[in-house]
């Protein structure tokens, strides 16, 4: 019996990751520095100096059921991630009721106020409130405090995405179901509210993401099929205002985006090349804590965007070069 218990303890003990990895394995367990599966679902990434910070929904199986959690991780190479803290662990922040929803956290750093501002989708369990929530912190991995919730531009808002342009201006992307599309909206100077509509995209999509690459803006989104994956789409335009032409597939439609849903695109500007990484979630609705990630460098340029078949790949963040063996 003692030997059996010892074997069980060893099998379930965290794996301490001593040797840094050099390869991203899409769809597989992605372990942090503690040897635990990264909990950053529906997430977003910001870069501060030489470090990337990844925020996402922490759906750890033994989290308290009446709370919602957001975790923060850091990395200098986009492959090896260090757990920083659970930056949000909140009960119902503003009278949303039992089973309230907190999804898709996205963090912005405001250089003027020196504040870190987090936007999330906040909702009741029936998804009828359709608000964004705003949390702030004085530290990137500090405790984020709830400030308010509202409907941006007085529109319903569910899935949200973030975009920071090359000039540092910050934008919120949000899906508004009654209007049959989604908005690109500029944030106020302090990032605490939505200042104005930049573009309304007449396409019933969610999971929106944006990247500015070689003079064009590329916009991605997922069709609406709940937790089930579907063929994600993209469009390109010369400005954020559009016009956004017909959306096209970013992967073979039969693969349903290789079983994933878009959440963001990450641009890595290196000394030799600028690469763009498609960042997506492989949702497991019945075992959400085991949901995986599909990250792949995309083929992009001249108004075209394509996510290649997922394979192990590597990146040199100094040069910006990616390699798919």
Could you name the key traits of this structure?
325 residues; mainly beta; four-stranded antiparallel β-sheet; 2 helices; 23 strands; globular
Tell me what the structure shows.
With 325 residues, the chain is mainly beta. The chain has helices at 2-12, 256-259, and strands spanning 41-48, 51-57, 68-75, 82-90, 101-110, 115-123, 131-137, 145-150, 160-164, 170-176, 181-187, 194-201, 206-213, 216-222, 233-237, 248-249, 261-269, 274-282, 292-297, 299-301, 304-306, 314-316, 321-323. Strands 1-2-3-4 form a 4-stranded antiparallel β-sheet, with no helix packed on it. The radius of gyration is 19 Å and the shape is globular.
How would you summarize the topology of this molecule?
Elements: H1 2-12, E1 41-48, E2 51-57, E3 68-75, E4 82-90, E5 101-110, E6 115-123, E7 131-137, E8 145-150, E9 160-164, E10 170-176, E11 181-187, E12 194-201, E13 206-213, E14 216-222, E15 233-237, E16 248-249, H2 256-259, E17 261-269, E18 274-282, E19 292-297, E20 299-301, E21 304-306, E22 314-316, E23 321-323
Antiparallel strand pairs: 1-2, 2-3, 3-4, 5-6, 6-7, 7-8, 9-10, 10-11, 11-12, 13-14, 14-15, 15-16, 17-18, 18-19, 20-21, 22-23
Could you state the order of secondary-structure elements as H and E? Answer: HEEEEEEEEEEEEEEEEHEEEEEEE
Shape: globular
Alpha-carbon Rg, integer: 19 Å
Low-confidence stretches: 1-17
β-strand amount: over 45%
The largest sheet, given as strand count, sense and whether it forms a barrel, is: 4 strands, antiparallel
Distance between the termini: 46 Å
Please provide the count of β strands. 23
Q: How confident overall, as mean pLDDT?
A: 94
Number of helices: 2
Structural category: mainly beta
Fraction of helical residues: under 10%
Spatial order of strands in the largest sheet: 1-2-3-4
């Amino acid at each position: 019996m003692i030997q059996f218990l010892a074997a069980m303890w060893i099998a379930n003990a965290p794996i301490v990751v001593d040797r840094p990895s050099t390869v991203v394995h899409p769809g597989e367990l992605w372990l942090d520095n503690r040897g635990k599966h990264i909990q950053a679902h529906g997430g977003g990434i910001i870069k501060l100096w030489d470090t990337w910070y990844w925020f996402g929904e922490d759906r750890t199986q033994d989290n308290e059921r009446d709370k919602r959690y957001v975790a923060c991780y850091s990395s200098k190479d986009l492959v090896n991630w260090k757990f920083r803290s659970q930056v949000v662990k909140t009960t119902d922040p503003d009278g949303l009721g039992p089973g309230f929803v907190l999804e898709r956290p996205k963090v912005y750093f405001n250089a003027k106020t020196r504040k870190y501002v987090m936007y999330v989708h906040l909702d009741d369990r029936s998804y009828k409130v359709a608000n964004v929530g705003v949390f702030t912190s004085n530290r990137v991995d500090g405790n984020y405090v709830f400030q308010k919730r509202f409907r941006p531009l007085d529109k319903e808002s569910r899935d949200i995405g973030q975009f920071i342009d090359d000039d540092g201006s910050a934008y919120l992307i949000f899906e508004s179901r009654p209007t049959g599309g989604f908005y690109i909206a500029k944030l106020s100077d302090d990032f605490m509210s939505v200042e104005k509509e930049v573009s309304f995209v007449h396409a019933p999509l969610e999971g929106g993401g944006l990247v500015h690459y070689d003079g064009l803006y590329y916009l991605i989104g997922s069709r609406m099929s709940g937790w089930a994956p579907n063929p994600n789409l993209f469009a390109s335009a010369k400005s954020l205002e559009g016009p956004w032409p017909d959306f096209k597939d970013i992967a073979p439609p039969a693969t349903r985006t290789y079983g994933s849903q878009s959440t963001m695109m990450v641009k890595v500007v290196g000394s030799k090349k600028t690469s763009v990484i498609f960042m997506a979630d492989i949702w497991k609705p019945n075992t959400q804590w085991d949901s995986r990630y599909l990250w792949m460098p995309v083929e992009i340029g001249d108004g075209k965007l394509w996510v290649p078949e997922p394979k192990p790949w590597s990146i040199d963040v100094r040069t910006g070069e990616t390699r798919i063996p």
